[in-house]
Design brief:
Structural class: alpha+beta
Radius of gyration: 24 Å
Largest sheet: 6 strands, antiparallel
Helix content: 25-40%
Order of helices and strands: HEEEHHHEHEEEHHEHHEHEEHEE
Oligomer: single chain
Strand content: 15-25%
Shape: globular
Number of helices: 11
Number of strands: 13
Strand order of the largest sheet: 8-9-11-10-12-13
Length: 327
């Protein structure tokens, strides 16, 4: 595998020319997932794109396939280059940076080495990690900087200040939303189904056999198939409006309490990924052990390793207004 990486580097360097220096870097992602990144440093630039190549790697690559891989990487590097250098001066000043500070949730044990390098706060088997959203051009909110201990030291702030700052920002910066899981699934299915049907419909000579009513009926049948036989268990998805790192919404002030007051009952919280959690009312047919099996199965089969949050089940008590880790 190292030989293949070396060949990719050499070919890419030759194609990019002397204006660039091409390097390889191992990058550790969430849950200890290690990816192989290619960095193309353009001389005179201060920011460089990282292109991950793991999907290309295998023991042997034929010459023609190698040419295609290098061409794809070449195109990706040029597409990722910035027309203007980012101005990150605001990040250096806490008073200017604090309005863009937020936190995300990760699994504490799976990220224990990573957590040694960053300020964080434990929450049951999870940990809050702080980050800064880069709002300056050309990123405009589409990039983040994880806050490390060195940053906190430079700012002369404590973890408590970071936590209070992020908690104050997030309800307005990344507003929470709760939706019925059937509506979420229906939206996903409708988007995918309509996309699949467009080509077939367009090939029909003016015959519109797929009416909106027909699609809605089909979607209803499909979403019903996801519910177990017998009594249906209502489920809800909690995330933020950006649907990125939305599991952190469980810590927003008042969000779980307001939902519990609306339901007039307690509920379980299932971490379906780092991006969202599922809320399940605590009715007699719901058993914590069964719910944990469901979470574990989904994490193994449906969620990317670096997007798994935890194989855990949490319980929100309306009486105590607290979220507890039960299994």
């Amino acid at each position: 595998m190292d030989k293949v990486i070396k060949t990719i580097l050499e070919n890419l360097q030759q194609k990019l020319g002397n204006e660039y220096t091409v390097l390889v870097e191992k990058v550790t992602k969430n849950n200890g997932v290690v990816l192989t990144g290619i960095i193309a440093k353009k001389h005179g630039a201060s920011a460089y794109p990282t292109i991950y190549i793991d999907n290309f790697l295998k023991e042997e690559i034929a010459d023609r396939e190698m040419e295609r891989i290098v061409e794809q990487l070449y195109q990706k590097i040029h597409e990722a280059e910035m027309e203007e250098e980012p101005d990150l001066s605001s990040f250096m000043d806490f008073e200017k940076a604090k309005g863009s500070i937020a936190f995300k949730l990760v699994h504490a044990e799976k990220n224990k080495e990573y957590l040694k390098k960053v300020p964080h706060r434990r929450f049951h088997d999870l940990a809050l990690v702080f980050y800064y959203t880069v709002t300056e051009k050309p990123f405009c909110g589409n990039a983040v900087i994880v806050i490390k201990k060195d940053h906190m030291k430079r700012w002369q702030v404590t973890e408590e200040i970071l936590y209070e700052t992020a908690l104050g920002n997030m309800p307005s910066m990344l507003p929470a939303m709760i939706r019925n899981i059937e509506d979420v699934m229906r939206e996903l299915l409708e988007s995918g189904l309509k996309e699949d049907l467009i080509h077939f419909r367009d090939n029909k000579e003016g015959e519109d056999i797929f009416s909106d009513e027909w699609v809605k009926e089909l979607l209803g049948q499909m979403t019903d198939s996801f519910q177990p036989e017998g009594e249906k268990i209502p489920m809800y998805v909690l995330t933020n409006r950006q649907k990125i790192q939305g599991a952190a919404c469980i810590l927003y002030p008042g969000v779980l309490k307001q939902f519990s007051d609306k339901l007039k009952q307690d509920f379980y919280v299932l971490p379906s990924s780092i991006h969202e959690v599922i809320l399940v009312p605590a009715i007699p047919v719901t058993e914590p052990e069964m719910l944990r099996d469901i979470v574990s199965d989904i994490n193994r089969t449906q969620v990317a390793i670096d997007e798994v949050l935890a194989d855990s089940v949490y319980f929100y008590s309306r009486k105590r207004d607290s979220l507890e880790w039960i299994c």
